[in-house]
Amino acid sequence: MDIFRICGGNPLHGKVKVSGSKNSALPLFAASLLTEEETILENVPDLSDVNFMAEILTELGAKVIRISSNSWSIIPSSIVHYAPYELVRKMRASICLLGPLVARLKRAEIPMPGGCVIGNRPIDLHVRALEALGAKVQLSGGVVKVDGKNISGNSVFIGGRHGSTVTGTANALMLAVLTPGSTVLEGCACEPEITDLCHMLESMGANIQGIGSHLLKIEGVDKLSGCKHRVIPDRIEAGTYILAGAITGGELTIEGIDFGHMGSFLDLLKTSGVSLVPQNQSIISSVPTSLKPLEVVTLPFPGFPTDLQAQMCALASITEGLSVITERVYPSRFMHVPELLRMGAHISIEGSSAIIRGAKRLTGAPVMASDLRASAALILAGLAAEGETWVQRIYHLDRGYEKFEHKLQKLGAKVERLPESELPKSISSANN
Ligand code: EPU
Fold it and tell me: What is the pTM of this model?
């Protein structure tokens, strides 16, 4: 396992280019199973989650070729309906295979992806959609088994207690496009990643109305064809770099942004005092004056994204005054908080809110990453902290940020990836 050593206190300067979106790319790989023909995906981020997905598709029988570092070809001429637990358990997004497998083969067997450190992640809404379309779903021996012999179009509401479900909407949609008859999906997620999926399905020949809204109307077709599709930019990665600039008091140009995907986040940062100047598809971010405290509530799109909440906690930790960050999507997604406390942050958790009293400075410390976005938050905190921060378990980071340390190094950050054996003895023995 690798670790990061960060020497903080350096304002970041320069240009950074945003990669393709992880949360778009993963369902798009799954969608390629809806046809026997070749799908070419471009602007795919180079991430461990993408490699896991490619391995799963290969295991299912598809011919998966990496054409270049960011382009893939998938030819699923002949596939099977079951995926192995060993691969599926590594990545929650593998649940997105259910819809395409049932649509194409009329059955699927996918092991439940299992628990997750960011909170409870049930699949009841996925199941509701499958059953509404006539599939029989049972959980047996930890495997979700779906019999889709008798599927037909129907109307179903797929919203839940915490709002809409992103991968649940993707599953319902991917099933509906090849299901005979008309399907109406109400309460859909309208995240940009779902819109991206709709666009790819359209270029495969699917008939979808209401793209970008909570109400999708789908007219099932008999067959879909292959296509070439470019993955949208990663709005969460873009936001993470904007926050890296703000937390270090530097000036960054972040290239390859889709502004339509980031309204709530950009608006909040402007309110706090970050200067954000758009320029074509780039944004120049700097911090002209001291920042004001933040009031954040995470919500489904177009609200403030939960996937930037941890990084926002890092920024609030050194923003003078009292910030309140409330998590509405995953109410217990605060695993980064105890680690930020180790660096001198003043944070208390009240229900699903983090109450943060900005400290004058953070100090470097050994910290443990618990999940993808927590890793990013700890690295941002380390960049702003005085002294040395050691971030352990950064394999979480490799799931979702392409070449993170290289991009940060080009901006002047003192961050390096090291083998775990380089961890100072005093820290590794404290872990035991
Ligand atoms: N939910 C249910 N029942 C369901 C499905 C979801 O109650 O059947 C609840 C969840 O427990 C949660 C809320 O609905 O409270 C939203 O969950 P959602 O299903 O939208 O999450 P997801 O599709 O599993 C995707 C992203 C996550 C991101 C969430 C929310 C992918 C591969 N993952 O997960 O990304 O946090 O949407 O935007 O698209 C990340 O990138 O770090 C990450 C965790």
Answer: 0.97
Half-sphere exposure of 150 (CA within 13 A, CB side): 5
For residue 168, the CA-to-ligand 1 centroid distance in Å is 8
CA distance 231 to 414: 30
Burial class (CB within 10 angstroms; exposed 0-12, middle 13-18, buried 19+) of 150: exposed
From the CA of 373, how far away is ligand 1's center (Å)? 13
Q: Which percentage of the chain shows pLDDT scores above 70?
A: 98
| Best residue among 125, 166, 298 to mutate for probing ligand 1, ranked by most atoms within 8 Å of CB | 166
- Ligand 1, from 49, 329, 398: best to mutate by most atoms within 8 Å of Cβ? 329
245-256, pLDDT tens digit by residue? 999 999 999 999
pLDDT per residue over 311-361, tens digit each? Answer: 999 999 999 999 999 999 999 999 999 999 999 999 999 999 999 999 999
Residue nearest to atom 36 of ligand 1 (CA): 307
Domain architecture of the chain: domains with CATH: 2-19+233-431 (3.65.10.10), 22-230 (3.65.10.10)
